[in-house]
Structure formats: structure tokens, C-alpha cells
Specification:
13 helices; 12 strands; alpha+beta; rod-shaped; five-stranded antiparallel beta sheet; Heat Shock Protein 90
């Protein structure tokens, strides 16, 4: 039996009570089966307009249309496909004639005006000579499945975003713990080093006084002996043999250098304490210039052999902040700038303030950032450094810290010329807890 015989069955069947048995007549039974299946069965001509030639009666329950109104409009199928889905169908429909079958999922406008998601399975029927005869399709309403898929996709997107936030929070927690460990280490270093440094410094000052006194005694003895004339020649010989003038000058120089070295040790310990801000968990009013200076002391060993630091500080008001976290930002930017400079170069640090905001600018003469990487540098775990040379977290954590302060980081870079990172911070961050007096 050819499928065009279905046209004979397109008139609505007599209403059959639900409890009645299925009809015995083959055609009536076929009509009964088609009208009670979940899929809408249809036939269409295998031409460009795909005019429908048959639609099963159950279309009324699925889409709200009568079969006759769908058959009367030669463009009914095309005109009711969602405009966003139509191009994909129309562009590939010709494949039906080479493949023989096509499956589509698209939105179809029901009589209510709402779009329902349909699963459409098309099959090309050919005659005995192989010429296209007609197209048979089965439309199934999959709206519930699509809604569930969209809900699952949305949930998946939300879960991925939550996972990313949890990962970032975890990394920030690790960073905070690392900073706390550094703070504890700094406190221990300060305690262990300050004590011996203190008494060595005191001894060196005493030694400086003692050597001064000794040289004065020698000078007095020489004066006394020179006036008697008896031992003047012997004293002059002893003085020349001991090279007393050089000894006096060199001892003073050695004592001065030693005192300068001890001061440097104290400054390093103090810088480490200032950088880490031991025990800091609350917002406080801080001098950002002091934070930059302490950070420069911390990273000096990383930069001193190849980088010249050019400081152009403006007038900055005290800023309410988490000072140790901002110091972490400064350290990341300085170290990244140092890594970008391969042999010799410079880093310029400029600061300024205006309209309740402060800015800190770090400009380097390094290798710069490729344009395709510029939009990704703040992504967690993104790095252009060789494996094992960087985690890709420094700039991501810096971005998070600045954002937490209600600020922003701006980047300008030119490949082969260098980069400029500018940190903008409000003097009083929104929502920041008032610092304790």
C-alpha cells in the first residue's frame, strides 16, 4: 500500500469511547493506530516547497491545528519553523535526496502562538525507478526534554562557575595561609635576629668609642715623647712600621661599614614585618608608599642585578585597605616586570591621587605581552612562562585583591617594548569595615 492512501483517511474518525476495543477493519485500525500514537505522521511532496499532502489527526492534540488547514497552505511547514532554526534546516535539506533520511530538532509554532520543540524524522520514498515519490515524516513533541536539558545545562554552567569560584577562593585561602606563614616566619626572624643584632650594634658603637680613645691616647703619648726628644726617632719608626695613619683611617671605615651593615639587617627585618603585617585581618589606614618601599626591599635580590628602579612618587593620602594584600599585588607586579626584562632594563613606579582615588603605575621596559594573551592574563592558571616557572595565579590573585578593594587594574602593553600596569584604588573602599583606632 502506498502512503498516499492515507489521504483517504484524513477525515476525522468517529469518536471511540476509551474503553472500546480496537477496530477490526485494517484501514480503520490503521487510522486508529496513527491517531493514537505520540508522533504526528505527515507526508509531503519531494519538491522545493515540501507541501504537505497528509497529516494525522493527532496533530490537533499536539499542535492545536486541524489537518485540513495544514494541507491547504502550501508553505505551512516552512512558515511555522522558528526563524532562528530555519536556516540550519533549509541549508541541509537537500542532503535528504542523497542520504535518504534526515533528523532535525527545531521549534515549531503551535496554534497558541507558543513554540514547541519538535523531533522531526524525515525519510524519502522513491518509486520503482528510483525517482523521489514523497517525503514521510514523524513529528514528536520534545519540549519537556528540551526544557530539562536547558535546565541541566544552566545548572552545569552555574556549577562550573561555582567550581571556578571555589577554586579561586581555595587558591586565595592558600595564598592567605602562605602570607600568614610568612608573617609568622617574619616574627620569628625578627625575634631571633634583632637580639644578636642589637648587642652587636651596641658593641660596635662601644668599639668605635674605644678605638677613638686608644688613638687619642697614642696621639697624647706621641706628643709627650716628641717634646722630650729622647725617643722621638724610635716612636717615628714604630709608627711607620705599624702604618698607624692608615690603621686609624681603616679602623674607622671598618666600624662605619659594620654599623651600616647592621642597619641594613634591621631594615630588611623591618621590611619583612611591614610587608607581611603579622596578624593583620582587619582594614586599616596605611601609607601605600611605605608598602611599596617594604616590597622593594623584599624583591631587591630579584631585581638589583638587571633592573634600575625609577621612583616618581606623588602625594598620596592615607588609604583604607588590607595593606599586606596590596603589598602582595605590588610584589606580583614588580616580579612580573623583572621577569619580562631579559638582560638590562628599568621599572618606573609612579603614584598620584585625584577625586577620592589613588593610582600606582608600574612601567617596565621588558618584552611586552602578545595581543592574543592580553585579554587572558588575569585568568586563573593562565601563564606564558615555561612549565615549572609560574603557576598563573599571581595576576589572578592581584586582580581579586584589587577588586575586593573596589578598585581596578588597567594594562597597556606593546610587544617588544614593555608593559604598564596601573592599579586604581578608592581612598575609602565601599563596604570596607572602619579601621580600629
Amino acid at each position: 500500500m502506498q502512503f498516499d492512501e492515507f489521504e483517504l483517511l484524513s477525515t476525522p474518525p468517529a469518536q471511540t469511547p476509551p474503553q472500546a476495543a480496537a477496530p477490526a477493519d485494517p484501514l480503520v485500525r490503521l487510522q486508529y493506530l496513527i491517531d493514537n500514537t505520540a508522533a504526528v505522521i505527515y507526508c509531503a511532496v519531494p519538491t522545493g516547497d515540501f507541501k504537505m499532502t497528509f497529516v494525522s489527526n493527532n496533530v490537533f492534540h499536539v499542535l492545536g491545528y486541524r489537518p485540513e488547514e495544514m494541507l491547504a497552505d502550501p508553505n505551512f511547514w516552512f512558515d511555522h519553523i522558528h526563524p532562528e532554526d530555519a536556516p540550519n534546516i533549509f541549508s541541509s535539506l537537500a542532503l535528504l535526496f542523497s542520504e535518504g533520511e534526515r533528523v532535525y530538532e527545531y521549534r515549531f509554532r503551535a496554534s497558541s502562538g507558543d513554540y514547541l520543540w519538535m523531533h522531526d524524522s524525515l525519510r524519502l520514498i522513491r518509486d520503482e525507478q528510483g525517482a523521489p515519490l514523497e517525503v514521510v515524516g514523524a513529528l514528536t513533541d520534545i519540549t519537556a526534554r528540551k526544557v530539562m536539558e536547558q535546565a541541566l545545562n544552566q545548572r552545569d554552567v552555574e556549577q562550573q562557575a561555582l567550581i571556578a569560584k571555589l577554586r579561586e577562593a581555595h587558591e586565595q585561602l592558600l595564598q592567605s595561609e602562605k602570607m600568614a606563614s610568612i608573617g609568622q616566619l617574619a616574627a620569628g626572624i625578627a625575634h631571633e635576629i634583632n637580639n644578636p643584632v642589637g648587642f652587636v650594634n651596641s658593641n660596635m658603637n662601644a668599639l668605635a668609642n674605644y678605638t677613638g680613645s686608644l688613638f687619642q691616647v697614642i696621639a697624647d703619648y706621641e706628643g709627650m715623647l716628641a717634646s722630650s726628644g729622647q725617643f722621638a726617632d724610635r716612636v717615628a719608626a714604630i709608627r711607620e712600621k705599624a702604618d698607624l695613619d692608615y690603621l686609624k683611617e681603616d679602623v674607622q671605615s671598618l666600624v662605619k661599614e659594620s654599623l651600616d651593615g647592621l642597619k641594613r639587617v634591621r631594615d630588611i627585618v623591618q621590611a619583612l614585618k611591614d610587608f607581611s603585617h603579622v596578624g593583620e585581618t582587619e582594614w586599616q589606614v596605611a601609607d601605600l608608599h611605605q608598602g611599596i618601599e617594604s616590597t622593594l626591599n623584599i624583591v631587591s635580590n630579584e631585581l638589583k642585578y638587571k633592573v634600575t628602579i625609577d621612583k616618581q612618587y606623588g602625594q598620596l593620602p592615607p588609604v583604607t585597605c588590607l595593606a599586606s594584600q596590596l603589598n602582595q599585588v605590588f610584589m606580583n607586579l614588580l616580579i612580573n616586570a623583572g621577569h619580562a626584562i631579559k638582560e638590562r632594563g628599568a621599572i618606573r613606579i609612579r603614584t598620584g591621587a585625584a577625586d577620592g582615588w589613588v593610582w600606582i603605575e608600574f612601567t617596565d621596559t621588558g618584552s611586552g605581552i602578545a595581543p592574543e594573551h592580553l585579554n587572558r592574563i588575569f585568568e586563573p592558571f593562565f601563564t606564558t612562562k615555561p612549565v615549572g616557572s609560574g603557576t598563573g595565579l599571581g595576576l589572578s590573585l592581584s586582580y581579586g585583591i584589587v577588586n575586593k578593594h573596589g578598585g581596578r587594574i588597567e594594562v597597556v602593553s606593546k610587544l617588544g617594548k614593555g608593559s604598564r600596569f596601573t592599579v586604581h584604588l578608592p581612598v575609602q573602599p565601599p563596604g570596607a569595615e572602619a579601621p580600629k583606632a
